[in-house]
UniProtKB/TrEMBL annotation:
Species annotation: Streptomyces malaysiense
Region named Disordered: 1-20
Transmembrane segment boundaries: none
UniProt-recorded name of the protein: Methyltransferase type 11
Annotated keywords: Methyltransferase, Transferase
Biased composition (Basic and acidic residues): 11-20
GO MF, one annotated term: methyltransferase activity
Length: 279
């Protein structure tokens, strides 16, 4: 590592950690995030998202879901704790020439979005990065956002469908198998049928419909699949408990049944969403 590179970073900060975070964010934006487009489109179509919609996206990531809503004419605000992902969202949604922005993008918790309230639609549409498998954590995230929702506003939560209809669940079991359960404070666990309903109930929301969406995870090659899945953060606990090389090896082996003759990787999945209403 050169001295000039070290001087570019504050003391006690590992430059490679920042570089790794940027690379992972780019992998998320370029490889993984796009597999969720069928889910986003199905929700926006069902709720007739358009010019009259004011949308708050929780854990908006690199902004693809916001971009799809903005393309329908919605006024969108996104909140995310990751500076690297938000930087990519700004590339997508904020014009470089200083023209009218397509979105307001804020770092931190939902409290950061209070100035643009009230919102008629609040979404937590990422079943990977939003804590959809932890109803208590998801409810806490929603509770922070609900003071900025209009009365009767729709809140949409997304999560994994039944395991038997999610091929990716067999691959994600690698994360659970390799992680030390005594040290893991996140990662993947199988979805339960009522996870989303429990989160909505904890947040004081009224269920108002649900749906399922075919959302296959497709990748150009096994290497892209490994990079995309690692970008989710679901394997972080496994890497901490073993090492990156071991996780890469076992993940590649788990993907083998889903390789096609042309070298692509294809995993059929069904994701589900819940629509709830603010009282």
């Amino acid at each position: 590592m050169t001295a000039s590179l070290v001087r570019q970073h504050p003391p006690h900060v590992d430059p490679t950690a920042h570089e790794d975070a940027e690379a992972r964010a780019r992998d998320w934006a370029e490889i993984q995030e796009r597999v969720l487009v069928p889910l986003h489109e199905a929700v926006y179509e069902r709720l007739d998202v358009g010019p009259d919609t004011r949308l708050l996206g929780l854990r908006c990531g690199s902004g693809l879901a916001l971009l799809l809503a903005a393309a329908r004419g919605a006024a969108v605000t996104g909140v995310d704790p990751s500076p690297c992902l938000l930087a990519l969202a700004r590339e997508r949604l904020l014009p470089p020439d200083g023209g009218s922005p397509r979105a307001e993008l804020l770092r931190g918790s939902p409290v950061a979005a209070r100035s643009a309230a009230p919102y008629g639609l609040i979404t937590a549409l990422d079943p990977v990065r939003c804590p959809s498998g932890d109803p208590q954590a998801l409810a806490a995230l929603l509770t922070e956002a609900l003071p900025y929702a209009a009365p009767g506003a729709a809140v949409v939560l997304a999560g994994w469908g039944p395991q038997e209809r999610c091929a990716t669940s067999t691959v994600l079991r690698v994360a659970a198998k390799l992680a030390d359960p005594l040290r893991s404070n996140g990662g993947w666990r199988p979805a339960r049928r009522d996870d989303l309903e429990e989160a909505a109930q904890r947040a004081g929301l009224r269920p108002d419909g649900s749906g399922r969406v075919s959302c296959p995870f497709g990748y150009a090659d096994p290497g892209s699949a490994v990079r995309g899945l690692l970008s989710t953060g679901l394997f972080d606990a496994a890497i901490a408990a073993t090492d990156a090389e071991q996780v890469d090896k076992e993940l590649a082996e788990a993907l083998h049944p889903y390789r096609r003759a042309d070298g692509t990787v294809w995993m059929p999945n069904v994701l589900r969403y819940l629509i709830a209403r603010v009282p």
